[in-house]
Amino acid sequence: MSKREWLADAICFVDRSEIKSDMVADVEGRWDGLKRGRLFPARQDVDPFVFQAWLPYISIVELQDDPFRVFYRLVGTEVARFGQEDFSYKWLSDTNWDPALKAANLEIYRRLREQHAPQFGLSKIEWEQRDDRVFEWGVFPLSNDGQTITHCLSIDDFRSIAPRLSPLG
Questions:
Q1: Which of 94, 128, 106, 100 is nearest to 10 (CA)?
Q2: What is the rounded distance in angstroms from the CA atom of residue 158 to the CA atom of residue 163?
Q3: How far, in Å, CA of 169 to CA of 12, rounded?
Q4: pTM tops 0.70
Q5: Diameter of the chain by CA atoms?
Q6: What is the Cα–Cα distance from 63 to 72, expressed in whole angstroms?
Q7: CB–CB of 102/113 below 8 Å?
């Protein structure tokens, strides 16, 4: 296996076959089922009830052009916990992240757009004073017209790092 290229020492793209997460696989299966003969499902096809088991780990992202920008429409509770902020209804550029990490995240969505295909990867995260924690993720394109990617569905499987917090505290 060749040496992995890590963007901002935090994000690494991998082939789908390298992802072992059942959560990523399950969300991919639901996304694939929503296509119904189209290249991509539409944003309005993403019914929270269908994705209920994974909602804490899901984000819905809007992609805009001129200039290319990323807007986080919805961020799951576990995504917010691990990101150390709820960045729902924020532009990527307005998050409190390091500029190199913002650029690396922007690259995920650029590749999704350019390749017209889901993207898969690994991300490093600092957790409980350790900077060697790694989780798997998948990002799946959505389209209002069935061809132009306008949104995406993202799943981050943090379970290998820490169990989900109870909603009751």
A1: 100
A2: 8
A3: 33
A4: yes
A5: 46
A6: 9
A7: no
